[in-house]
Design brief:
single chain; 181 residues; alpha/beta; five-stranded mixed beta sheet; two-stranded antiparallel ribbon; 27% helix; 28% strand
Length: 181
C-alpha cells in the first residue's frame, strides 16, 4: 500500500509525518521487553475496566500539528484518558494513562494493550502500569491497533476542521488543547 501512495493505518506513514514536520514513531528497541498479545483480535470486554487500549495519532489544529494520545476502555468504547502535545514523547502517553487511572481507578488485573512504540515501552510508562497492577499486552510488529478499536474516533478527529482552544487545569496552567468540531 505504501508503494502505491495509499496511506496505511489511522496515521500516515513515517514519510508523510516527516513531510508535515512530525517525527515518526519509534519502534521498540532491543532493551525493552516484548509482551505477548493477550487480545489477539478480540476487542470486546465483559465489563468496565477489564481491557484498555492505548494509541497515538496526530491531528491538525489552528496552532499546528499536535500528537494525541488516547486510552480507551473496550467495554464502553469511551476515551477515559487523553493528552495532547507538540512532541511525541513518553510523557505524552504517560499523562494520558495517568488521567485514565485517576478517572477509573481500575482494579489490578486490567489488561492494557498497546503497540510496541517506545512511548509504551518507556520506563515511566511501564512503572505506572506495574504500580497499578495492569497486565501488559502488545500488538506484534506491523499490527495496526488504530484500525481495530481507535480507528473511528481518530478518523473523526482527522476528518473535520478542528478548532483548538486552550484548556486550563485547576491551577490555571495551560493543560493542552481542546478539539472542537
Amino acid at each position: 500500500m505504501k508503494e502505491t501512495g495509499v496511506g496505511v493505518g489511522v496515521g500516515d506513514d513515517g514519510e508523510r509525518q516527516s513531510q508535515r514536520g512530525l517525527s515518526p514513531s519509534s519502534s521498540l528497541s532491543a532493551k525493552h521487553s516484548i509482551e505477548p498479545n493477550l487480545l489477539g483480535q478480540d476487542f470486546s470486554a465483559p465489563a468496565l475496566n477489564q481491557k484498555w487500549t492505548a494509541d497515538i495519532t496526530y491531528i491538525w489544529t489552528c496552532e499546528g500539528w499536535v500528537y494525541l494520545a488516547v486510552v480507551l476502555d473496550l467495554f464502553s468504547r469511551r476515551v477515559i484518558g487523553w493528552n495532547l502535545e507538540v512532541r511525541m514523547t513518553a510523557d505524552l502517553a504517560t499523562t494520558a494513562l495517568q488521567r485514565a487511572i485517576a478517572l477509573r481507578q481500575p482494579p489490578p488485573g486490567c489488561i492494557h494493550h498497546a503497540d510496541r512504540g517506545s512511548q509504551y515501552c518507556s520506563e515511566d510508562y511501564r512503572k505506572l502500569l506495574s504500580t497499578h497492577g495492569f497486565i501488559v499486552s502488545m500488538s506484534r510488529k506491523g499490527k495496526l491497533l488504530g484500525q481495530c478499536c481507535h480507528g473511528k474516533l481518530l478518523q473523526d478527529l482527522k476528518s473535520g476542521t478542528p478548532v483548538a482552544a486552550s484548556l486550563d487545569d485547576a491551577s490555571g496552567r495551560r493543560a493542552g488543547h481542546h478539539i472542537l468540531h
